Amino acid sequence: MVRKLIPQIPMKRISGKFCLLASSLILLPLLVSQTAHATPHFAVYANTSCSHCHVNPTGGGMRSSHGVNLYSEFSLKKSSPLFPPEFKGRVGQYFGIGGDVRLQNLSTIESPTNNSFTILWGSLYLAADPHKHLTIYTDTDLANTTSREAYGMVHHLPGNSWFKFGRLNQPYGLRVPDPTSFIRSDLGFTFANQDLGVEIGAEPGPLTLALALTNGVGGGAGDDNQAKAITWFSEWRKSILRFGGSVHFNDAQTTRLLTGGAHSGLHLGKVALLGEVDRAEVRNKTNDTDRTITLGYGEINYAPIQGLYCRGIYDVEDDNLAPSGLHHRIGGGVEFFPIPFMEVNLLYRMQIGNGTLGDDQIVGQLHGFF
Asked: Among 141, 221, 232, 246, which has the highest number of CB atoms less than 10 A from its own CB?
């Protein structure tokens, strides 16, 4: 897919310091485990796959009936008896419905100060199941008047496999819900960026495997050449540990893009760790120039009580945006569920770098879902 990676910047070497830092995001869970998705940290806490809670086997979008029931139990323990969950995600035998509304308040706390409300998305999910092996699914962002995913899926085939066709999110990496995370925004794999094509996948035992063949044009437009984009996702889970990898290749008309990444997760009691490292090689065919981008993401979650998570998040990007070529973003905050089907997020985000990252920020979100 032709993404926002494309600006013409010469290729540069990744510093040894960053390589060590990026490697640690993947190796940390592996080292700790020797002694002992979609929001991915929920899947890590539950030691399961994204398909455990979502209609889409690779995560994101509408929740299954099981997922609706599970998410409804995330409220603070004292509020659970006062606000018992009621909605089950189904309207009759053959139809499902769901939705998400995220209102965000973003404050810049340094000069010039700024404060604004935005709706990241206000999605309505609809699914019809005319047959036990077929689901027709749509995801429409009503707040921003855009259509997102719209596909048919043949599922529960031998080997717990599936086949999707239509407008879909490509299966790549950790599906963190923050669209501004470097591993989502700078690679283009956000929930607002779909492509047209097909996907096949399977979940044999502890494995999740998915392969998508799409046009490779952002926004789900028609193709600009004869080639197709290929996206591969894989993940292996064993008890408290998971490890996976993704690859994306797109030989578009003006740009050739090859992206590869690895991700991991670890669950230790009340703690869940996540990490991902990606490297993108971009060739601009028009100017015959190359560009290399390396990105990393780390997340730690601690659940002291039911319905409350203390979180630390780290983003890093190495990309000629400044003389150092290295940018960090560190965040800390809380995520809690005061009542069923409602989430509150508070995050302080400190940005380090001389490029376009901007000033430190306070991010607040109110998230209603069903």
From this structure: 246
